[in-house]
Amino acid sequence: MDNLKKLDPSILSFVPRDTYYLSLEEQLKSIESSWELLLNSDRELFALLMILPGTNYAKGRMIHYLTSTTENYSDRSSNSVRTFSSIDPLLEDEIIMYNLKQMPMASAIRALTFLAGEDYAGRKLKRVNNTRARRIIMTYIFDRDDKSLEAMAVKFKSKLARLIRHTFGNADLHKVFSDDNDQYRLFHKYCRHAITNIPFDTGVIKTAISFVFNKYEDPIISAGIIQDYEALKQSAKANNVEVFKSVLETSNLPYEIALGFRNFYKLDVDLKFIHEKGKKSEQAKFSTMESAKRHGAEKTEVDFTKQSLKNLYKYIYFKYNDNEKLVDEEYEKLVRAIEKGLEKESKLNVDLGKVVVIVDSSDSMRGHKTRPYHPIITAMLTVNKLPNVGTVIFSGANKFALDPKGNTNILPLVEPVGGTELWNSLLHSVELKPDTVIVISDGYENTIEGMFEHIYKYLEDLGYKFKLIHINPVYDSSKGGRHLVKDIDPICISEPEMFETSYILTMVGQDIVNVKKLLAGIFNKKLGGEKRELLIEGKV
Amino acid sequence: MNYSLKERFKTLQLEKIQSVGGMSVLPIVSTETFNEVRGADGFIFEGTDNYGTMNFKNDTEDVAIIPSNFMAITAERAQDHAMATSGFIEGGDFESFNNACCIQSSQGGYISGKADSEFNILPLSLRNGLDASSRFETGYDRLWSRIEYFNENVTTNRGAHLEYFFKEHKDRLEDFVAQFEVVHDQVGAFVFYGKELMGVEIVPNVEFWKGIWQWLIRGCYGAEYLRQTLLGREISKIGLPDLNTAKSIGDVVNIVDSYIVNGTLKLAEGVSGDWSFSNKPYQVKDSKTMVYMKGELTGDVMFIEEDPVYISLVKPIRI
User: Fold this and answer.
1) What is the pLDDT at residue B9?
2) For residues B291 and B283, is the Cβ–Cβ distance under 8 A?
3) How many Å apart are CA B199 and CA B224, to the nearest integer?
4) Rg, C-alpha atoms of chain A
């Protein structure tokens, strides 16, 4: 188990992006060897860790690893420290399905296309087409209500075609479209074998499959969003703007589909019209708000209470960045939505005792121009999720002047500005006698470089007892994060939820059994299933 | 014309020292700024159409200043260039500067300006190579021997290619620049290696500073600092205070606070004094640009009417 003493924190947080220091390919090589090391050392831990928050890419690749290595799937003689009695295969499948359902649909479908051998940018992965992989793909696609299936077919048409072809294989795919009853029965049987709880009588599955494979002429396509899609497409193809507009106006077709047809067929339709008549989810309303405004669309009524705190914070920071004032009504709505969001916010599953948080609010926490304000927003969101926080010290911040009436700002947000003097906040925090001091900082210190560590060592020498945790929201999977104190590795996070993940990963090297117990607890809580019996079978 | 900088200096204040390794910055702040002058958000580098000629346009209505010794390393297969001086472009205008320098000795081709370029300010010891007498002369190859010497022992590839240094040390330079931060109302900085003043940069307004300070810290002062340390030349650090006399947390706060304030004041002493001068500037290109010399400091001062709005002066360093 020595090779698990220090787990690569990117295991769950990897994002496939070129960084300043390493190409994507170099990064992938490194992270793939970390995944393989963990999987080969302790498959159960590998699976259990997936219950923690992580990036969709990392989760997708981990699903690929689990489903592609079935030779170890039920291997009872491995050296894994197994904490579950006899449920390993189910445990893995439950975790896989849980993760897929947690992801936005686009990410889940992308994760499944990994099984079909497709990674990013033409990169190939091993194709996985065993019974289990097929069952997972089919369950995800078809185990949903009719409307959701139709909507998915419309929105992810070509990707679904790719997945279904991968699952059935060309030889069996024709059975779906066959008029031969015997053949169709075979398809039924095949699907039923894979998915047990889907009603097959409606024919919607067959409709959806026919649609994604362009079987337009099939008479079973009769109504609903699929028909609207076809009508919109035909009108775009024929360059019939009037029909295109009328179909869009009367249907429930999403904005992206209409935009796609408009652009592909070069239709003379105003973007304003597409923005106004295409259907948008709350998330889409929010993310297209600026673009809609630019094109003169009537103001989209965004329900702030349905937005994540991250979106609300971003909205405020970006407005501030663009020197745009919030109007009265908007400000009040934002305040209410943030208050509501904070009430709902669940705390992370980490026991840290009494916590004091220092938020580095110096200028560098504005972040890089490609992701403006990302570090400070991540810091603010992380503070909300930390348990048992007594005091939050903002080091170097300016208060936002956001309230249009000039009242005291009640939003829990600050403007990062100036140099970094975290040493002062550290001294202030120990006077509050915390069990844990969490400093959220990009690790760049200049007034004067090394002063924070100097003060920390001084306090340590004087006998102050507290645990110092450094969370670094400026994340670079290839380099790790910048240290404030040489001996304290920063916990690098790109999203606030990742703190829980990274923190638990740091505990693996110390006590693997307890980490598994902790993960089992989280697993039970999240999946709401019956309590798993813990059985410690191995020695660490 | 009154060439004194004294009036401009009266409106400026110093902020707390920022110190990383042996390099320190005293931020200069001011609320009295010249907001009608633009920097990086005003001029657009339009490429080159001859060796030693850099073209710029300014699509805004305001005047724009190209900072002194602005350099471009292009992603195109073309010769990288650097300005020998600063530049001034009226709103809506186009300007060619034919006294620029090539910074690669064996690369052909002109920059179209269509591909991305990485912008910086020339490293300090290369800026020294463009002294008062040669700044307005033409001669595209006049930095080559200096660049070759600059790279010696600090880059794997040898030769007069400045991009070798910037590419090889890209991560360290980025890391270094990230450690210094812009403070509220900042319009400039005094830069020190150890206790020695190496340069003063003052720009017309806060936005101007935000647009160029990374080029300065990374390209000019940071690159030179890195090179000096790679060559093993000692640059003293500010150090950290002795806390042994502290009896309480309050004492520690006071000790560290005084240490930083004293450190700031000590460096500030070196830059105080009379910044006005009665002699004529060394050379005047037109009514707006001049080369200024004060003691060992040399560089550009740009005036709008009577106001010195842009000041960029550096001190010689051993190359």
Assistant:
1) 79
2) yes
3) 12
4) 26
CB A520 within 8 A of CB A532: yes
What pTM, to 2 d.p., does this model score? 0.81
Q: How far is CA B43 from CA A461, B57, B90, B92, in A?
A: 54, 6, 10, 10
Rg value, chain B, Cα: 20
CB proximity A363 to B under 8 Å? yes
Residues 435-474 of A with CB under 8 A from B: 442, 444-451, 454-455, 458
Of A398, A431, A446, the CB nearest to B18: A446
Query: Predicted ipTM?
Result: 0.87
Put simply, the answer to whether B18 touches A20 (Cβ < 8 Å) is no
pLDDT at residue number B69 = 97
Element (H, E) at B120: strand B117-121
Q: Do B243 and A398 touch (CB under 8 A)?
A: no
Question: What one-letter code names the amino acid at B166?
Answer: F
Q: Touching check for B166 and chain A: CB below 8 Å?
A: no
The predicted-structure confidence for A343-383, as pLDDT tens digits, reads as follows 888 888 788 999 999 999 998 898 877 778 889 999 999 99
The pLDDT of residue A237 is 92
Weakest mean pLDDT among A72-81, A335-344, B139-148, B189-198: A72-81
* Token pair recorded at residue B184: 């509220």
Residues of chain A with pLDDT under 50: 72-87, 201, 219-220, 534-540
Interface test with B, best of A432, A448, A476 (most B CBs within 10 A): A448
Distance (Å) of CA B162 to CA B56, B80, B107, B219, B261? 22, 9, 12, 11, 38
DSSP bridge partners of B118: B73
